[in-house]
Amino acid sequence: MAAPLVKLNQPNTEVDQQLQRVETLHQQLKAEHARAQELLARLKGEEYQASRTAPAKPQDWVKGNRQLDMKLDHYRERAKRLEKRAGGKSSMDIGIPELKAEEREIRDLEARVSGLEGRVRGFEGLPPDKEMALMEVEKMRKELEALARRRDMFEGLVEGDK
């Protein structure tokens, strides 16, 4: 009599185990559903919404691309003109001797600019108006002559004492 009871009880135990597994899975699915709902609520929040300026951005990008294309065309034209001016040589045709010659020319120009800057520094402090500047120069010349006379007179006194 025990054997038939065991046979009847075994399917009942299996059903109970399956029911426990299904309940565990159901609880896990409910927890996952709650997390998914929470994530969905966060994604619908203000933080993840498109900005109000978003529709205008692609238009700005297209406009920027057009401007860059125009600049690119402009620079290509300038490069072609410079190549023509250089006698048809492209930048790939320029070698070390040409670069050294260019460097010498640049150094000569720098030296010339330095000399001119020195000359210009001599005019610092003068008024921008030509006539006023001439008057200032004449005033300084008279002052220089007066100082030279005083120096000569002083030297004459010193030599006379000897």
Walkthrough of the structure:
This protein is mostly helical and 162 residues long. Helices cover 80% and strands 0% of the residues. It contains 4 helices and no strands. The radius of gyration is 48 Å and the shape is elongated. It starts with a helix and ends with a helix. The model has no long low-confidence stretch (mean pLDDT 84).
- End-to-end Cα distance, whole Å, is 158 Å
Largest sheet: none
Helix/sheet category? mainly alpha
Query: How much beta, percentage-wise?
Result: under 5%
The general outline is elongated
Task: Please write the string of helix (H) and strand (E) elements.
Answer: HHHH
**Fraction of residues in helix:** over 70%
Mean pLDDT: 84
List key phrases describing it.
80% helix, elongated, 162 residues
Would you kindly provide a brief summary of this structure?
The protein is mainly alpha-helical and 162 residues long. It has helices at 2-43, 56-85, 96-121, 130-160. The termini are far apart.
What does the secondary structure layout of this molecule look like, with pairings?
Elements lengths: L1 H42 L12 H30 L10 H26 L8 H31 L2
